[in-house]
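Worked Example 4.2. Consider the chain below.
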Amino acid sequence: MRSARDLLRLEDPALAPIADKVLAGERLERGDGLVLASTADLLGVGRLANLIRERLHGDRTYYNINRHLNPTNVCVASCRLCAYYVPWRRRDEGWTYSVEQAVEVAARDVDRSVSELHIVGGLHPRLLVDYYEELFRALKTRFPWVHLKALTMVELDFIARASRLELGETIGRLRAAGLDSCPGGGAEIFAERVREQICDHKTDGRRWLEVARAVHAAGIPSNCTMLYGHVETAAERVDHLLALRELQDETGGFQCLIPLAFHPENTELDHLPPTGGRLDLQTIAVSRLLLDNVPHLKAYWIMLGEKVAQVALHFGANDLDGTIFDERITRAAGGTAGTGLGRQRLERLIREARREPVLRDTLYRRIELASDVA
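Applying the procedure from the previous section yields the following structure tokens:
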């Protein structure tokens, strides 16, 4: 009988016992993650991750038709990783939409084909819970068919504190106003050593997980993220993934992990190099292998670029996100992947990667649209 190492053409013998676990459907441990994150055998790690990907999803690769809405770029946090924000003291240089303005900005890009609005922004001390309640109600009135995926755990924590409300009350009010799910941003890397260097003015890692727990307890699904390629170590990436896995064991509320490649341009960390395809693909593969209880893993093309995102569909990823019109955060940090892709272009990228495109809604339910839409 051929060994797992031979079947998967593994070059690093340290991967063989991990491959045995993967083939047997056993959960990987921290030590396995450290090996996977540090081995030079990138293709071996990719093959292992692809086994899991195809076990879960076959050739199916999901995408959606979505639009981004950023109500403000004014922020009281001064995160060194961010090229998007305008500090509060210079707020006149940024933008802050009224509810009416935000709805009109959304209306420029939303038609009946759009199934999701992705709504995130800065931590603005005057945009309290009542602002977001009014915004969500107005958006639901104008676009009743659109799913509102809005407010990271960091934003929810800030809104609750700025509004002088309990977190649970804040989440409940926003849900009643139209909040359907939450994106996963702001998690960055949970290690406090890292957060002190890149985002020390923001909700810490423990609190991020507490807010996610409360969101899930309220019946609101969310995504989760990991920002990699800055000052973190491979071990800190592994620990981040295991913290997400532990919470998912408890709540089951995470739908998808999005590994986010750090873009240093125009940030205070612009002396750092960009991530590069090797780190991108290894991180995606390790994420798929360790995060065994989160069903979906996204290759976020807006950060990875189209080519790396295509390859990632064979390194564990089963989702390309969506059409993503008017994305501003990555663009501010030097992202060059573009400001949006049409449905036909996304499907072509997926088919070129020898995968089957599946149009989905935010909850991963298949959508059927006419071929000439979007």
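The two ends are 51 Å apart (CA to CA). The first helix runs from residue 4 to 7. Compare this with Example 4.1 before moving on.
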